Amino acid sequence: MSTAQKVSGPPAPVPGIASALVWGAGQLINRQAGKAAFFFAFFALLIGWEMGTGNYYAGMDYDARGNGGFFVKGLWGLFTLGTQPRQMTVTGLTDGDNSIVLMANGLIALLTLALLAIMWIWSIRDAVAYRRKLNDGAPRETSLAYFKRVWEGAFAYIVLSPGLVLIVFMSVLPVLFGILVAFTDYNRDNLPPKNLVNWVGFENFATIFAVPSWTATFIGVLGWTFVWAILATATTYAAGFVQAVLLANRKVKFPRVWRSVFLLPWAVPGIVSALVFRAMFNGQFGPVSQWLVDVGLTDERIYWFTDPSHPNLARAVALLVNLWLGFPFFMALVGGVLTNIPDSYYEAARMDGAGPLQQLRHITFPVVHRTVSPLLILAFVSNFNNFGVIYFLTQGGPDNADYRFAGSTDLLITWLFNLTLDNRLYNIGAVMSMLIFVIVGTISVWNLNRSKAIREL
Amino acid sequence: MTATYEATERARAARRRRHRGPRGERVASAFLHLELLVVAIIVIFPLMWIVGASFSPGTGLANASPIPEDATLDHYVSLFTETDYGRWYLNSLYVATLNMVGSVVLSALCGYVFSRIKFKGRKAGLLGILILQMFPTFLTAIAVYMLFLNFGLLDSLTGLALVSIAAALPYNTWLMKGYTDNLPASLDEAAAIDGASRWTIFVKIVLPLMRPMLTFVAITQFTMPWMDFILPALLLQSPEKQTVALGLFAMIEDVYQNAFTTFAAGAVILAVPITVLYIVLQRYLVTGASAGAEKG
């Protein structure tokens, strides 16, 4: 009995293969009934779900469209996007396939399968690992003890699960869906349930990069978006910096009152301020045009956002309004940094004979910039996607005859909004979303790489 | 002669620079305050104009003036009697409250777990969060719209709140995780040795320490739905389900509708509580925003 420690049994891969074929079978070979039942329950769920939702008693002719259950029909739908269009027959309209519903169901089936696949892999690995341990002479462990051990380690997963479920169905699923739509012809000319949607490969990407009017719009809007994001970030930062430095001056009386006043544009909801400026700069009735005429600076009213011959005027005004909206945030940030610079720095500089400007250039600015620079990237990204200011202020105007569905001040994101909501070009919109993500993602990854965030994971 | 004259002149100028007389100080101070005053006027004028417009008699844009002569409260009355403003306000309040509660609870839980517990998949989870927060909200918004459209789920305020919570969850979790990382771990270790469960440690020890970040997430998530436009514009359709932002935008979009002063009244009612909240809690908001940058 000296070899009693060594349990005789099949080599480790055998239960693994068994579990791969029928979930839990390997555990049964390992004589762990509890675990076997646990894994088999998921297997039964998968088969039962498919059988219950499908139509498997109908006879010998089997096809995925007519007989498939949730998973088979789901995957079939995802692959084909439907085969039967809606038709007019003697008895009226037939029910055709709704491509988009099929695609969404297919995605849900795919995600569910992916989650079940985790259970499958778990069962195989567990069967192999346990058998290997047994063969190496480790003592047996009851299923109950195993689950107790797992349960104690599962606090993290239990607490995370509500958030995870929400994110999978409200963020991950839509993101995947959006990516898929970019490869279809889903648009206003091809709306289900009337028509079938088809996979078109990279045709939409080709449209944006090969059809001249689309390419011109894309390049033009992209260029302006970059100019806007750079200028908007630079101007708000510069103005906020100057204002913070001036406020930090000891000569200023009632600094807290001034500070609170300057913070107002940041505190007032952005949509309200933008709409107020839209009214102020209204060409026909707005007070700014009226005032310029009254003072005699201009002969007639200026149509700030609607005059196609002056696109740069609209752009400049948009940047100024954004400056009004954006400088207080940087002022508050820089102000916070300024209070943390020790006075001894400045005293030392004064002893060395540095004037106020030199102190500003060699002490204040470098210290502030080091702290604020990661935020500049974030500010750049948020300006890149600054829907609020442009959409509420100019709505993309003035019109640009060379552009497709875009005006002279349209950013990529407002153009995308127009394409999707007003023009129902869902496929082109999806391509645009992906392009914006690639641009923004590249900048963010670059920024993350510079910071410690990734290494700290 | 001229050389010595110049030398003494230069010396005098240098002395003047070193001991700036009270006169120079006063001039510098005056210029400083002049600049502050000009900026303050630029900042305040548009706000005063809209407040003035809300009290101005007449209905059109042309009638608006910063200091109306015959101030009237008519527009505030008609806002609640002739438009659905009250309905919109309650809708926004509902979405905002749900969004705030859901975001704070979920992000605090997830942030705590990611910060303090080592588990399989933690690294992958954090990487996933980082990638998801890079996805612009509108990308998911448009896909959510297409999904909801085809499943008949559009036009639900609760659905809007759920989408908003999910959209902001990765970023909020990241903030909470970063904040919890900086809290001393010795306290929870001591409690764990005394036999406290993880849940007790979270509720009794970590949660109270997270208060500044909880406040930050609560304010930002409460105020967000009042100003958000894209998501509600996509997901809400029927007139009785509109939010304040949608209603106000519709009101101003048509200048010929002659509802500008009513719009002004609505804008003031929307802006005042949020503005007060921001000014009072500015410290929390600024530190919270910079904490987000430090952590990525």
Give a quick set of tags describing it:
heterodimer; A: 457 residues; mainly alpha; MetI-like fold; 2 domains; 19 helices; 1% strand; flat; disordered N terminus; B: 296 residues; 78% helix
Low-pLDDT sequence parts of chain A: 1-6
Report low-confidence residues of chain B grouped into runs of 5 or more.
none
How far apart are the first and last residues' alpha carbons of chain A, in Å?
Answer: 51 Å
Tertiary shape of chain B? globular
Largest interface: A-B, 95 and 93 residues
- Sketch the major β-sheet of chain A: 2 strands, antiparallel
What's the rounded overall pLDDT mean of chain A? 86
Task: Give the full name of the CATH homologous superfamily of the largest domain in chain B.
Answer: MetI-like
What quaternary form is this? heterodimer
Question: What pattern of helices and strands is seen along the backbone of chain B?
Answer: HHHHHHHHHHHHHH
CATH fold topology of the largest domain in chain B: MetI-like fold
Biggest beta sheet summary of chain B: none
Overall number of structural domains of chain A: 2
Report Rg of chain B.
Answer: 27 Å
Strand neighbour order, sheet with most strands of chain A: 1-2
The radius of gyration computed from the alpha-carbon positions of chain A, rounded to a whole number of angstroms, is 32 Å
Number of structurally distinct domains of chain B = 2
**CATH 4th-level superfamily of the largest domain in chain A:** MetI-like
Q: Termini separation of chain B (Å)?
A: 66 Å
Instruction: Give the helix level of chain A as a range of percent.
Output: 55-70%
- The structural class of chain B is mainly alpha
